[in-house]
């Protein structure tokens, strides 16, 4: 669809006589219309088969999924467009509206984005901060409206005086009406404020620089930065409270721990027996780099024999498989009190109350 829009834009530029587009679009992109037609029919058939397979596989559950209904609406509009294009002509504006409905297919990308952790966090944060966004935008618009009304009122005598120096047309372009003033204020807030400021200083008064600097410092920096800070806080809050994000982070940490411990097990299993005995564990823990690596993960192996004994105590065996090592290290790593409590339970044994 993007290529079709680009093609129509090239043709519109040629008809306007735009510089650099002296040739029509069918000469710049030969056979493009044929390719568009073939691809349009191809994807229409593919989407039809996809919906049919979904319907046959889920039966009535098909209609309970909003995404399926959206796909069905887009496909129905496509069929209407195809039939009206061949059977009887429609108004070009209606055909353009039909083409715009294809943009709804891009909404399906949201479903794909939710599978990516970073994009899911962004979408969830945007939804959670919608109220803050609405109120922040309302506050910013209200401030800009008051300033726009003030600027139009202040500049009006200059514009209505035929003896005013400078170019009144350029000044009117920025502050002649309320809507122009609103656009100008948002331009100097979010964009480049220098051209407008220089024009007003040279044509109206140099006092305008005071307004420009105050507006940039208060609105452009302070207010906008506060709004940005609110959104960042909302994002952090969502990341800390959303169940899906927390489960994903826990799962990622567990997978990372398993991969590291599996790599350690393979490096320590010198006889490749698939079991890690006491001697192999002590030998690999004698390596200072391994000690630092495990310490960085939160496991103190300064007494490697004791650590091996504690891990084996949970399984009742004298050697370990890869799974035993992963679970044992996960149980003991962390603050020193974890391994201390495990040692205490081992030494104290079962407690029988009197």
From TrEMBL:
Record keywords, A-Z:
Membrane, Transmembrane, Transmembrane helix
List the Gene Ontology MF annotations in alphabetical order: calcium ion binding; voltage-gated sodium channel activity
Q: Where in the cell is it found?
A: Membrane
| EF-hand domain mapped to chain residues | 256-291
**Chief location:** membrane
- Gene Ontology CC: voltage-gated sodium channel complex
- State which residue ranges cross the membrane: 38-56, 76-98, 130-154, 174-195, 207-232
Can the keyword Membrane be found in this entry's annotation?
yes
PROSITE patterns to which the protein is assigned, alphabetical:
EF_HAND_1, EF_HAND_2
- The signal peptide stretch is none
Q: How does it sit in the membrane?
A: Multi-pass membrane protein
Q: Does the keyword Transmembrane apply?
A: yes
Question: What protein name applies here?
Answer: SCN11A protein
* Organism annotation: Symbiodinium pilosum (Dinoflagellate)
Q: What is the lineage of its organism?
A: Eukaryota, Sar, Alveolata, Dinophyceae, Suessiales
User: What gene name is given for the protein in this entry?
Assistant: SCN11A
């Amino acid at each position: 669809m993007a290529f079709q829009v680009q093609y129509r834009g090239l043709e519109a530029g040629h008809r306007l006589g735009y510089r650099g587009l002296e040739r029509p679009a069918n000469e710049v992109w030969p056979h493009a219309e044929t390719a568009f037609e073939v691809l349009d029919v191809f994807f229409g058939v593919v989407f039809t088969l996809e919906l049919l397979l979904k319907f046959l596989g889920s039966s009535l559950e098909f209609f309970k999924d909003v995404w399926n209904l959206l796909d069905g609406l887009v496909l129905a509009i496509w069929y209407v467009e195809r039939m009206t294009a061949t059977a009887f002509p429609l108004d070009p504006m209606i055909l353009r509206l039909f083409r715009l409905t294809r943009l709804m297919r891009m909404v399906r990308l949201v479903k794909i984005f939710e599978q990516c952790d970073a994009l899911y966090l962004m979408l969830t944060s945007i939804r959670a901060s919608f109220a803050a966004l609405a109120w922040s935008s309302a506050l910013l618009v209200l401030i800009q409206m008051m300033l726009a009304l003030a600027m139009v009122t202040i500049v009006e005598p200059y514009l209505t005086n035929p003896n005013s120096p400078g170019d009144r047309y350029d000044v009117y372009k920025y502050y002649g009406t309320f809507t122009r003033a609103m656009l100008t204020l948002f331009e100097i807030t979010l964009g480049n404020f220098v051209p407008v400021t220089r024009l007003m200083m040279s044509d109206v008064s140099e006092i305008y620089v005071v307004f420009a600097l105050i507006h940039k410092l208060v609105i452009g920096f302070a207010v906008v930065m506060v709004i940005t800070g609110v959104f960042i806080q909302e994002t952090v809050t969502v990341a800390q409270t959303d169940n899906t994000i927390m489960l994903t982070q826990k799962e990622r940490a567990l997978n990372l721990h398993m991969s590291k411990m599996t790599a350690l097990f393979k490096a320590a299993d010198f006889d490749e027996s698939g079991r890690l005995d006491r001697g192999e564990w002590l030998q690999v823990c004698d390596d200072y780099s391994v000690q630092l690596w495990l310490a960085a993960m939160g496991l103190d192996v300064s007494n490697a024999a004791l650590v091996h004994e504690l891990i084996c105590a949970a399984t009742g065996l004298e050697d370990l498989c890869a799974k035993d090592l992963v679970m044992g290290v996960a149980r003991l790593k962390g603050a020193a009190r974890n391994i201390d409590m495990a040692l205490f339970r081992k030494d104290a044994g079962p407690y029988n109350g009197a």
